Amino acid sequence: MNALPTEEEIRQTAELLVHTYGVKMNSLMKLMGRERYKELVRVFRDLREPAADEVRIAQMLIVEKGPYLFAGSSEEVRDLRIHLLRQLSEERLMALYERNKVQGKAITSPTYMRTALAKKKWLIGGRWARDFVTAFDFPLVFSGISIPKDHSTDAIQDIEPRRAVPKLVEYQVGLKSRMLEVLNKEQDKTRCVVTLPTGGGKTRVAVESFIDWMQPRFEQGKYMLWIAQGEELCEQAISCISEMWQEREFPEALRIYRFFGGKKFEVEDMIGGAVIASIQQLYSRIQSGDEALEEILANCGAMIIDEAHHATAKSYRALFDRARELAGDDLFPICGLTATPGRSNDETMKLVDQFDAYLIHPSFPDMKEYNDHPLRYFRKEGYLAEPVFILHEDGVETEVTDDLFNQDDHDLSSEFLQILAADQTRNLQIINYMKSIPEGSSSLVYACTVQHAEFLAMTMNAIGRKSAVISADTPKPIRRMHISAFKKGDIEFLFNYGVLTTGFDAPRTDHLIICRPTSSIILYEQMVGRGLRGHRFGGTETCKIIDFSTNIRRHGEPLAYARFLKEWDVKVVGGRELVR
Length: 580
Known about the structure:
Low-confidence stretches: 576-580
Helix content: 40-55%
Strand content: 5-15%
Oligomer: single chain
Shape: globular
Radius of gyration: 27 Å
Strand order of the largest sheet: 1-4-5-3-6-7-2-8
Structural class: alpha/beta
């Protein structure tokens, strides 16, 4: 069974819903949301697209909801299930209920049977879900997908030896050599900050360096503590560590501990190994005096902090204070990883000063040419793609006042992003640009809100461009499938809000469309970095970046894109594209 419905299954299901079972436009509007439907009608009119009939609206809903079309407990979904159940003969309805009885109820009335079945808990890929879709001749994919168990649900995982991994390239070999040199120093001198531009492979270099250094220490019951900002980055680190351990052909297994997402394990199961943790869970466990965390910190062999610009937060201060109490003032080797475009900047130097650390950056064959502009080396050698930058200039100049600015993270507030998401003129410009992108291209789109991403994706699907949405609420199996389909070219546009800025690699991305403005240079670099991997690393020679925030200013100054253009040495003129 396919994980997502095919084009034929989508067509077949829409025809069944509308023509066979008589699902009316009013029901489809409720499932879509009336306001979204009205906005879609307006956009169709502005785009001079023909009005969408019931079948087309049904197809749009099926594409959006995928295998979860009939899942859930919302009033709209239950109403749809009841409507369908009313189309069955009493004989077939009673047979369906007999196979899927509601426990504790003796129901004999067909009317009550429909209500009970419509409200029955829908387990993805379960017996009731399969029986329901089969009864109406819908493709089995709409029972939901039952994903084989993978290790990401386990708190503990043993990694067995072997798998081929590409060798480090020249500048990465130099970085590894200097990292090992620092690691082999004594006490508080074993601290470093490694800086590489996004796409340069900092995770890969750090994993190989620390795996080699920690290997004999794992046998002594020591832990390598890898700290990341969220579950996606944690899983990315686990994947890289697993591959590297197998590649090195060490004779023993490596035990990996998932210390994020609420996962727990017993101290009795801890024998040393790699602990992959989110800072959120570490901070929470410090407050609760977690025994497993005490074991990790007391026997920590090394700590790696990914996206280390976050390490100035109070959660990290609490972590270091507790580590000193358990391991002594000298602590253990600490390495911060950060993605910066040049030799150094303010954020990087703050980290260096905070940790009293060595700054490790790449060395180049011709230091005179690349010393001031290291990005030129990565592009010339094909490690990074050339950014083709387009600043979309249409629209009224908007000044962001202080009340629309979040003082906590010094970025645009959610209220302002919601205002932009509802801007009909701006949305039409975004949609028209996306329509102009050649079919078969891959475009990663950063929206202003989750609802904004859903609306843009629904519109593109409606005009025949295969699109999908990923948000924090997207179930992990569906998220993995959408990302896989995007990487294979089965999905042209992948829309998201806030979840594909880190821990996500789609090297062959042709277009990055930034609809969400930001004043954070770090967030901006994380967004554009998803498409800047060069052909030497399986990416592209160029990547087109389209930014729709050029008319948004604060105190008369442009947002983060302007600093990105300067620091990444990108030249652009107005709305015209220019390769540096």
